[in-house]
Description:
The protein is an alpha+beta fold. The chain folds into 2 domains: 11-49 and 158-229 and 315-371, FAD/NAD(P)-binding domain, CATH 3.50.50; 92-151 and 230-311, D-Amino Acid Oxidase, subunit A, domain 2 (D-Amino Acid Oxidase, Chain A, domain 2, 2-Layer Sandwich), CATH 3.30.9.10. It is built from 9 helices and 20 strands. The chain has helices spanning 19-30, 64-84, 102-117, 127-133, 157-167, 215-220, 269-272, 281-295, 339-356; strands at residues 11-15, 34-39, 54-55, 90-91, 95-97, 123-126, 145-149, 153-155, 172-176, 180-185, 191-196, 201-203, 206-209, 232-239, 249-251, 254-258, 263-267, 303-311, 321-324, 331-335. A hairpin with a 6-residue loop joins strand 19 and strand 20. The two termini are 22 Å apart.
Amino acid sequence: MRIGSMKRPERVAVIGVGILGSSVGWNLTRHGVKMVFIDAGQPGEGVTNWSFSWVNASNKTVRKSYFDLNVASMAAYQELGSIIGPVSWWHPRGHLRWADDPAAETKLLKTAELLADWDYRVEVRTGAEVRRLLEPALAVPDEVPVVFYPDEAWVHGRHLVSRLVSLSVAGAEHRFGAAVRDIGTRTDGAVRTVVLSDGSRLDVDMVVNAAGPSASHVAGLVGRHLPMRWEPGAVTRIDCAQVPVHRPMHAPHIEIRPDGNASVVLHSREIDALIDTGEDPAELARLLHESARRVVPDLGNSRITQTRISNRPIPADGFPSVGAVPSVPGYYEAVTHSGITLGPVIGRLLAAEILSGTSDEMLADFRPERFIP
Length: 373
Ligand SMILES: Cc1cc2nc3c(=O)[nH]c(=O)nc-3n(C[C@H](O)[C@H](O)[C@H](O)COP(=O)(O)OP(=O)(O)OC[C@H]3O[C@@H](n4cnc5c(N)ncnc54)[C@H](O)[C@@H]3O)c2cc1C
């Protein structure tokens, strides 16, 4: 579908350098586009660094087109690894999930069946097999069914962003530690300048709003209303001398994944539900640690080091908002939850849209225009 001009951009500003902004920017610099990477803080230190960071499509069965987009991004990760080298950011060792009550277990197995019908690789193991073959440190009952998704992964978001930004260095300008305060437009409404909090003004002919949870505010700078949800999540890092797990897992009441050689990340939707009650983050971290120790007793020797509460960048209907906004020529959005999974495919498709003026069919259900009143 044609949605804009085919005029090649002179200079594009990416506003926000998390997984989304770095992926779009890296794809554009590969095609020789002059880029300015702008971040109010430092690259990769927003939600991208405070995510459970599980790359998957198994949790995306709510709409087939959304599932397909996530599957495409899992393939895009393989391609990205072959281009930029996997190094420390890519951990493709699958994902485990099990339940501790009959209703949740039935739902889990039904989803696994549906995914198998959609040609998604899934294996159902017993707890005893998982301990013997995959995760010896788990306190999972012998007979409980455990669903294993071998093609899923986790990503070290901050490392990946650093790599993409450093590989974009030719032809790219970096403005870190300065927030975009204003976006100037021409009389015809087209984007012309961005003004930063350090007072500088940059001439650009396109901007990509990749400001994560602040995307609604940035959209407001061009007079656009992008409705977003309030859905905060708490993530805790714990240090341990030896990391006792090898892959991300959704155990009952707790999600656990490795985070490098000496750290583990914990998250739980049940604990997230306490955030709006005003519970102290230190108490949330303690509860996460307690749940994790029940599943992996070796985590008893670990120490809580950092906890952060972040809002998920979720457009109001729960789906990504990606592409041009025709009423503001030169303004594009790359705003989504599950951005760790979706970063590579959105980066590739949005860069192609900016360069060709044509949007990919895969993004048809996720266009920004659906939020225009
Ligand atoms: C608890 C939790 C668990 C999650 N788990 C998963 C998961 O398992 N799998 C998955 O795929 N996704 C998960 N997500 C979602 C995923 O982390 C996000 O979708 C993704 O990280 C968003 O990346 P981003 O680049 O859009 O945002 P960010 O990483 O937040 O980057 C946005 C950047 O914009 C900058 N910025 C903001 N305003 C301005 C401004 N005015 N000017 C300049 N810069 C600005 C910020 O400083 C920031 O660096 C989770 C999220 C949370 C909160």
